[in-house]
Write a structure and sequence with these properties.
about 550 residues; alpha/beta; Beta-Lactamase; Rossmann fold; Arc Repressor Mutant, subunit A; five-stranded antiparallel beta sheet; about 40% helix; about 15% strand
Length: about 550
């Protein structure tokens, strides 16, 4: 280990903390922030490779010390593949000369980076992740990579990542022992993995009604525990159905305002003409149809929490009025001369990339910065495989089998094949889709849940999915293309062929979606009716 880094008091402080506590996201962010400084980079990302392929960004920070939203789309996947293959520091001195190094940023009109610098992170001699740095106006080169201070901090990030993995495995082992004392729960791995062994899935941890065994979600729980006495605004980001509304309730229940009002505004569910009246309230006669006084949600939430669900769907005019209220704390109902002083904590959620909406002038920049004091990013269910078993059992208990043709109160048995299908499914609708399937099974009153009990999207997956039929010897590029095409077709079906909504759900730009549609021949002769909407009963997740 370099002595240059050891002379840095922040380095020693983080080393001490790594020895005393779990390397949570705040520690990783501090390491990334320090690398931003000493590399003089514009952006730095810490990522971890997935065993099933691909990678996940754990932390992405910019030169202003802000979290980067949707970091997966903001970096060059080609550069990461090059570094993984080489297994050494990878330098791209002029990334603009090769289109393969571009990210989704370029399709949003943002200037691509001039240079990219990547450092591999190893665990037991295996490259398990890396550090990604870039800059739009200066060259990051091998000289930067060879500096002792840089190597020391990159090494520290590797130590933190390794400790995080070890503590996660230890936590799982402890939960496994506890579970075995109560009831062994065995699930077989998918046959496609060729390993016909059995594994015991970890029991999820509960935090104010939200369950998870996923390390990233557990980091969110830790952050909320540390900020329980803080009143800063919170922005919750994630795909549709991941549980943003539930996490908003957890933010409230874990804060000093627990027990006080928790009011929700569905920004996408109210027409613009009603939004102002719903938020601010009105007096009798304020407008046609206002036959009685109505207390606004902002006044009702006084002393508690106001949750703006899908705030990215709010119109610009209402954004301006909301910002005015947030700045002064004064609310005047429509048609009234009275002004009410309100004290609310603001929690918002969005499935959109708000930074992209700001660039497109569809969301106010000043409101965006006011909302994002603390950003909580919930991973999709497909990246939380360890949660599927626990969530399934929790949902079975929640829907009370004793009242659904089960007079003896005994919940049905779940076959290992069923749990295998649930664990292997992509879950484009996330937790909401899983919940809908469990509700359907509950309504049908099965004594034993087998593969035949499942919905067709799960039951027929072994034979109906093109991806499931891919055989050995097929190039990885073809497998990835097949999976991508299936994901696009499924998103278009759920969105009734609406390409803008499908692009939002897939986390890509509309332009990027059109390129893929053209690539897979899904544009020619296809009308929106070719992707009929899949009707799914609504449920809170």
């Amino acid at each position: 280990m370099s002595t240059s880094g050891l002379r840095d008091s922040r380095y020693l402080d983080i080393l001490r903390r790594l020895g005393e506590e779990s390397p949570n996201r705040s520690v990783l962010s501090e390491i990334v922030d320090r690398l931003l400084e000493i590399l003089d980079a514009e952006r730095v990302f810490l990522f971890r490779f997935r065993k099933a392929g691909g990678f996940r960004v754990l932390v992405g920070r910019d030169i202003d010390g802000e979290d980067i939203p949707r970091p997966q789309q903001r970096i060059s996947h080609h550069a990461i593949r090059k570094m993984e293959k080489a297994g050494t520091v990878w330098v791209v001195p002029d990334a603009r000369q090769d289109r393969r190094y571009r990210s989704e940023d370029v399709f949003l009109g943002r200037k691509p980076p001039m240079s990219i610098l990547l450092f591999p992170l190893r665990m037991n001699e295996e490259v398990v992740g890396g550090i990604y740095a870039d800059h739009r106006f200066r060259t990051l080169d091998e000289g930067d990579a060879q500096r002792e201070e840089v190597q020391a901090w990159v090494g520290l990030s590797g130590v933190a990542l390794s400790l995080r993995e070890q503590l996660t495995r230890l936590r799982w082992a402890e939960k496994k022992l506890e579970a075995e004392k109560r009831e062994p729960r065995v699930i077989r791995r998918s046959a496609s993995r060729r390993l016909r062994t059995t594994v015991t899935m970890p029991e999820p941890q509960e935090f104010h009604g939200m369950l998870s065994a996923n390390p990233d979600v557990l980091d969110l729980f830790d952050a909320l525990r540390r900020l329980s006495n803080a009143d800063i605004p919170v922005l919750i980001c994630g795909e549709t159905g991941v549980g943003k509304s539930l996490l908003a309730r957890v933010v409230h229940e874990s804060s000093s305002r627990a027990g006080k009002p928790f009011e929700t505004v569905s920004c996408g569910g109210l027409p613009d003409s009603l939004m102002e009246s719903e938020l601010l309230g009105h007096v009798k006669g304020a407008f046609t149809g206002a036959e009685t006084d109505h207390t606004g949600i902002l006044v009702s939430a006084h002393g508690g929490t106001l949750f703006l669900d899908e705030v990215g769907d709010m119109c610009l005019e209402m954004q301006t009025k909301l910002l005015r209220v947030l700045e002064g704390g004064n609310v005047r109902p429509l048609g009234s001369k009275d002004v009410f002083q309100v004290d609310v904590r603001l929690v918002s959620s969005t499935r959109h990339d708000l930074e992209r909406l700001v660039d497109q002038e569809r969301f106010r920049r000043d409101l965006y910065f006011r909302l994002k004091s603390l950003v909580l990013d919930i991973p999709p269910l497909r990246e939380r495989r360890e949660d599927i078993s626990g969530l399934t059992r929790h949902l079975l208990r929640q829907y009370n089998w004793a009242s659904l043709d089960h007079p003896d109160g005994v919940a049905p048995q779940i076959s290992p094949e069923v749990m295998e299908r649930l664990s292997d499914y992509f879950w484009p609708g996330n937790v909401r889709e899983l919940e809908n399937e469990i509700r359907r099974l509950a309504a049908l009153g099965f004594q034993e849940i087998t593969v035949d009990s499942l919905g067709p999207f799960l039951r027929d997956r072994g034979t109906g999915s093109r991806l499931a039929n891919v055989r050995g010897g097929v190039p990885l590029e073809d497998v990835v293309a097949t999976a991508e095409q299936e994901a696009i077709e499924a998103a278009l079906r759920r969105c009734s062929g609406n390409k803008s909504q499908a692009a939002d759900e897939l986390g890509i730009t509309r332009k990027a979606l059109y390129r893929r549609l053209k690539k897979y021949g899904l544009l020619e002769g296809r009308a929106d009716s070719d992707f009929p909407e899949t009707q799914v009963p609504q449920a809170n997740a």
